[in-house]
Write a structure and sequence with these properties.
Elements lengths: L15 H17 L1 H4 L9 H33 L1 H38 L2 H16 L8 E2 L2 E2 L11 H20 L6 H22 L2 H11 L7 H8 L1 H19 L7 H21 L9 H4 L2 H20 L1 H6 L4 H8 L1 H11 L15 H41 L3
Antiparallel strand pairs: 1-2
Helix pairs in contact: 1-3, 1-15, 1-16, 3-4, 3-6, 3-10, 3-13, 4-5, 4-6, 4-17, 6-10, 7-10, 7-13, 9-10, 10-13, 11-13, 16-17
Length: 410
């Protein structure tokens, strides 16, 4: 998935626009999965645009995650590494694990039932073997193939949890990065350098992952999966390929926190122009492969590189544009979708099969039915996500935070 992972929170009023952006990212992922609900899209000229909604949504999620982690926890960890780290770990456990465990176990049950119904003992064995990795959240941390299936996508219905696994890896490296950074204040120059370095490292990583020699060595040593190539695992699923988007978010947060520092007006204007350029790249990218062809800019791995370069300045521009931020990014329904985005990301993948349209269906003869199923898919996903947020996410989070305050009062 294309699949995300929305996991940060942004309670402070000044970064409320980021909550809405997280909601938009979640909706991009939902739109991406309309191509699963309507398989006919995969054979139409709209397919490239639908693929890009997933790629863009995931990049936005990971960049926003880096931003929110830095904004909420960097100062606490830098000021008091021990207490700050404990608070960070508890807050992240409270946020991620309760819903993750429920989601993984629920889908594990579906997977086992499916295996029993089809008499597929090999799949059942794979589900049993990899379940502990999914419950802990480390299934993407290493390359492994079991029964011909890559571990990162070995739970079938529960595969969207891959992005949560990547996120947990980011948290593992976040704490030492912040401690090494020290107590120095935020800096626009440092933030810009971090973003540029993240884009450069993402580009280099993709170039290395695309080398046949690298793919051949990994495949020869650890196995090959016919459903997930080595290079696609490296670039899309592995936290080692995705972490640079998270780091770009850290750099963006540095820039944001230093936004009131004295900066030449030319630099500020240049930053806004870069944001506009990022937005323009994103918009134009959706026309590639259907309206026009520009493979070096908008297709295949070029899109992965382009989005990590375009998303951070685009986020900065959108959140700093007073008119857009106040009128669009504080729109109450969009803010609410941002709040329930983690639940929406997970539960909508279970709703999609319920409204799935047969590949043999001629859509031109059943337009009303197809539209109705898409509307119901989105509506039911939002309703279940709301219930999940209110009855699983929030209660569990509050319980863990109460436990934290008991032993680490503010």
């Amino acid at each position: 998935m294309t699949n995300s992972h929305p996991t940060g929170t942004s309670e402070r009023p000044e970064i409320l626009p980021l909550t809405s952006l997280r909601g938009l990212a979640a909706l991009l992922i939902v739109v991406n999965h309309l191509a699963l609900l309507l398989p006919q899209i995969g054979h139409s000229s709209a397919r490239p645009a639908f693929v890009k909604t997933g790629l863009l949504g995931m990049t936005v999620f990971f960049v926003l995650s880096g931003f929110v982690m830095y904004y909420n926890y960097a100062h606490r960890i830098a000021s008091s590494p021990s207490a700050g780290t404990v608070r960070f770990i508890f807050a992240r456990i409270a946020r991620l694990y309760p819903l993750l465990i429920v989601y993984v176990l629920f889908n594990f049950g579906l997977n086992i039932a499916r295996s029993i119904a089809t008499g597929d003992a090999a799949s059942a064995s794979t589900f049993m073997t990899t379940l502990p990795l999914y419950l802990i959240g480390v299934q993407t941390w290493f390359y492994a193939v079991i029964n011909g299936i890559n571990v990162s996508v070995s739970q079938y219905y529960g595969n969207p949890a891959w992005s949560i696994s990547a996120e947990l890896f980011f948290y593992l490296v976040f704490v030492p990065v912040i401690i090494l950074r020290g107590k120095s204040g935020p800096s626009v120059a440092r933030g810009v350098m971090v973003v540029i370095a993240s884009v450069a490292c993402r580009t280099l990583f993709i170039a290395i992952a695309s080398m046949p020699a690298v793919q051949s060595w990994i495949g020869g040593k650890f196995g090959v999966s016919p459903t997930l190539s080595v290079d696609y695992w490296l670039i899309y699923y592995s936290p080692y390929g995705r972490c640079f988007e998270f780091f770009a978010g850290l750099g963006l947060a540095e820039i944001w926190l230093a936004r009131n520092a004295p900066v030449p007006s030319l630099v500020r204007r240049l930053g806004m122009l870069t944001g506009l350029a990022g937005i323009a790249y994103i918009v134009v990218s959706f026309g590639s492969e259907s309206v026009f062809h520009a493979p070096r800019l908008f297709e295949d791995n070029a899109t992965n590189i382009g989005y990590v370069a375009a998303v951070p300045p685009a986020i900065f521009f959108l959140s700093r544009s007073e008119a857009f931020a106040s009128r669009v990014l504080t729109f109450a329904p969009l803010l609410f979708i941002g709040e329930i985005s983690y639940s929406l990301y997970l539960v909508h993948t279970n709703v999609e099969p319920v409204f799935h349209v047969s590949p043999e269906t001629v859509l031109s003869d059943h337009v009303g039915m197809a539209i109705a199923r898409c509307v119901l898919f989105i509506g039911v996903s939002l309703l279940i996500a709301t219930a999940s947020y209110r009855f699983v996410e929030m209660p569990a989070r509050l319980q863990v935070l109460r436990f934290l305050r008991k032993f680490h009062p503010d």
